[in-house]
UniProtKB/TrEMBL annotation:
GO terms for cellular component: membrane; mitochondrion. One of its GO terms (biological process) is mitochondrion organization. It comes from Cyanidiococcus yangmingshanensis. InterPro entries: Band7/mec-2_domain (IPR050710), Band_7 (IPR001107), Band_7/SPFH_dom_sf (IPR036013), Stomatin_HflK_fam (IPR001972). Residues 5-88 form the Band domain. Pfam families: Band_7 (PF01145). Transmembrane segments: none annotated. Coiled coil: none annotated. This is Stomatin-like protein 2, mitochondrial.
Length: 119
């Protein structure tokens, strides 16, 4: 019973150090830190924890909803950034095309002027 309470307390302590997103991303590292903490405390009892596994994380419905809203906002933000970058590239391409056109027109006019003056 004491070891179970120690494991739960250690898990809560380690989970408290991470954001919810990080707990999903770093589950293996979290398990290893919990094993280390348990072994540090349980060594005095002559016990060793070989493995600790957080199999599933089920946040409350309101937290899941908040995470979904955050993920959706992040997707919209990325889409807006991509749209604006595409628009920027398009405007740059149009401007470069116009510049190139003016250069070619100027060169053509200069060539005509040179040919007219040599006649």
């Amino acid at each position: 019973m004491a070891l179970t309470l120690l494991a739960q307390t250690t898990m809560r302590s380690e989970l408290g150090k991470l954001s919810l997103d990080k707990t999903f991303e770093e589950r293996e590292m979290l398990n290893a830190r919990i094993v280390d903490s348990i072994n540090e405390a349980a060594a005095a009892w002559g016990m060793q924890c070989l493995r600790y596994e957080i199999r599933d994380i089920n946040p409350p419905a309101n937290v899941r909803k908040a995470m979904e809203l955050q993920a959706e906002a992040e997707r919209r933000k990325r889409a807006q950034i991509l749209d604006s970058e595409g628009e920027k590239e398009s405007e740059i391409n149009v401007a470069e095309g116009q510049k190139r056109s003016k250069i070619l027109n100027s060169e053509a006019l200069q060539l005509e002027a040179d040919q007219s003056s040599t006649r």
